[in-house]
């Protein structure tokens, strides 16, 4: 499973880099067309929305996979290691429930509802934008299961002591 995570991290990193580079180029073109050419580009604004949503959701899943997300764990840092481990697994279960219910199931429903809606600025339908929800949900579920297993077995520490020093 560690090999799968490493491959997923690398692929997701490159996808986010490519999407972000495309977003920068798109917004750069949008500003150039509006300010220099005096001819605003209608399609670039729509594309920027799509790229921003995809980068945000896939980037969020990647940060979650690296456990780089914000965590309010001041009280848990002072607890015994067993309490830290139980708390960490409970948090992972909560994240798993959110990812399954909101991202995957809710995302699937939104994609289904918007799949036939079209845009005027781009030759794609609205469903492609919302497809980022269930995809990022599946990735988040994979990372959650990975972290749950590794925290439960002691291969991964429950609370990162270097993340922020506890108050004295």
UniProtKB/TrEMBL annotation:
<dbReference type="Pfam" id="PF04290">
    <property type="entry name" value="DctQ"/>
</dbReference>
<feature type="transmembrane region" description="Helical">
    <location>
        <begin position="86"/>
        <end position="108"/>
    </location>
</feature>
<keyword id="KW-0997">Cell inner membrane</keyword>
<comment type="similarity">
    <text>Belongs to the TRAP transporter small permease family.</text>
</comment>
<keyword id="KW-0812">Transmembrane</keyword>
<feature type="transmembrane region" description="Helical">
    <location>
        <begin position="128"/>
        <end position="146"/>
    </location>
</feature>
<feature type="domain" description="Tripartite ATP-independent periplasmic transporters DctQ component">
    <location>
        <begin position="25"/>
        <end position="150"/>
    </location>
</feature>
<feature type="transmembrane region" description="Helical">
    <location>
        <begin position="47"/>
        <end position="65"/>
    </location>
</feature>
<keyword id="KW-1003">Cell membrane</keyword>
<keyword id="KW-1133">Transmembrane helix</keyword>
<feature type="transmembrane region" description="Helical">
    <location>
        <begin position="12"/>
        <end position="32"/>
    </location>
</feature>
<protein>
    <submittedName>
        <fullName>TRAP transporter small permease</fullName>
    </submittedName>
</protein>
<dbReference type="InterPro" id="IPR007387">
    <property type="entry name" value="TRAP_DctQ"/>
</dbReference>
<keyword id="KW-0813">Transport</keyword>
<dbReference type="InterPro" id="IPR055348">
    <property type="entry name" value="DctQ"/>
</dbReference>
<keyword id="KW-0472">Membrane</keyword>
């Amino acid at each position: 499973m560690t090999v799968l995570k490493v491959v997923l991290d690398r692929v997701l990193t490159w996808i986010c880099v490519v999407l972000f580079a495309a977003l920068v180029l798109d917004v750069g073109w949008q500003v150039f067309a509006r300010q220099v050419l005096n001819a605003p580009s209608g399609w670039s604004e729509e594309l920027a929305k799509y790229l921003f949503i995809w980068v945000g959701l896939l980037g969020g899943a990647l940060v979650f996979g690296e456990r780089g997300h914000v965590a309010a764990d001041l009280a848990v840092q002072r607890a015994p290691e067993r309490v830290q481990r139980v708390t960490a697994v409970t948090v992972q279960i909560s994240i798993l429930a959110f990812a399954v219910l909101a991202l995957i199931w809710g995302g699937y429903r939104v994609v289904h509802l918007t799949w036939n809606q079209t845009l005027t600025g781009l030759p794609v339908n609205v469903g492609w934008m919302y497809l980022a929800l269930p995809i990022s949900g599946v990735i988040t579920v994979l990372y959650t299961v990975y972290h749950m297993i590794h925290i439960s077995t002691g291969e991964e520490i429950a609370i990162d002591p270097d993340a922020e020093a506890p108050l004295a």
